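Researcher: Hi, I'm a grad student and pretty new to this. My advisor asked me to get structures for two proteins we've been looking at. I'm not sure of the right format, so I'll just paste the first sequence and hope you can take it from there.
Model: That works fine. Here's the first sequence with its structure tokens right after it:
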Amino acid sequence: MEYQLAEACQNTFILFDCLEKQKIDEEFLQEAQKLLKKENRDDALILIGAQSDQNSLSAQMLVLGWDGTLAEFCGNGSRCAAAYLFQHYPGYENYFLNSHRLERHGEKVYSIQLPSPSFELNPRFVSEEPLFGLQYVETLEPHLVYFGKMGDEELLALGQEINRRKDLFPLGINVNACEVLGSRELYVKTYERGVQRLTRSCGTGSMACAAAFQSKGSVHVLTPGGKLEIDLREDGIALKGEALV
């Protein structure tokens, strides 16, 4: 099985080009998980279902976690997919991933436009309260947000404790510690449910924190792995930052 190594803000991936396929079987997912662990990366990105015309290319992205589950989405991974599509399938005016627009801003910077975040509890991810005093935000992925300083060990312990509560969070949930650095600047650390540990950066987590912080405008998010720019608009939210394949 051929694959590419990819990275966005030190959030690390292996990427499989299966664009000619419409779906992936269980055997492929099992082999992909083995390779993911062999490479010691955060997630596996599997691109499938390419559709194209003279002007546009669209694809679907599956996100396979370290634990073998499929995530709803991955913000940093989507920008790695953008980097791959722009570089390996050039010549189109428009690029879409899971129906969301991708854009390139220079050689290494990419963005994706997503729907507006939701603050309404989703019964798929949260069976009932309590939420441990944290705020729920859904940016395609489910997140809990804490505003304030929190050490890595403390966040890791909190994330593990919360994700053991399958009665409350049947599919697991991401947990973010968000520190306000300025009027439009945040520092975000994330415990990711699919990886089951802290990662160097989380795109959907950064968007969740930005949305919990303010309703409109741009927010610069610093993560342990690098910088992201979040743009909160009336018609959605955009995630922008570097990505390498």
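Researcher: Oh nice, that was easy. Here's the second one.
Model: And its structure:
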Amino acid sequence: MTPTSHAIVLLAKLFSGYTVRWIDCQPDTCQRIYFANHTSHLDAVVLWSALPRELRKITRPVAAKDYWSSGWLKPHIAKAFNALLVDRKEIKVHKSPIDSMLQQMGDVYSLIMFPEGGRSSADDEMGEFKSGLFYMAKKRPDLELVPVYIDNVNRILPRGEVLPVPLLSCITIGPPIFLEAGEPKMEFLTRARRSVQCLKER
């Protein structure tokens, strides 16, 4: 972990004041995909920072290349938390983002993903999950798919704002799910989305 990485963890804790709850799930170094609701550009930073140190070393947040590559500060931050940057604008048929992500995971890294693609609406209503999580699960059925609900981070850095406002937030990490044999894509995505929503009430 670099000095910048440590600084990011400290600042994330300072501004988000997060608490972490593990429900029917424990920190583990096995390969996982942590998939969460998406309400703020800070989601990836806060969730990554909230993981125990030994997990942060082997966990890479998936982030939008167009956002995290702009300016001078964001690329530096993205490098510090080892973000896996995905190009949302120039997707090529012969170079699938899913295949690229799996290749960069290898047999070592876990990922943090936000299956909605974009951020949730202003009223915190989760969007429908896009198909990426399904194809990841189909190609790597050994991966634990761990649902995460992030609460209140959107109010730390509201849309259109540049500077974060210190608040308290909560991260709830739930029991892993897996793609069941023969499970249709839409049924799986609905079940995965529901597994995140259910954590809001727990």
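Researcher: Is there anything I should tell my advisor about the second?
Model: You could mention this: The chain has eight helices and seven strands.
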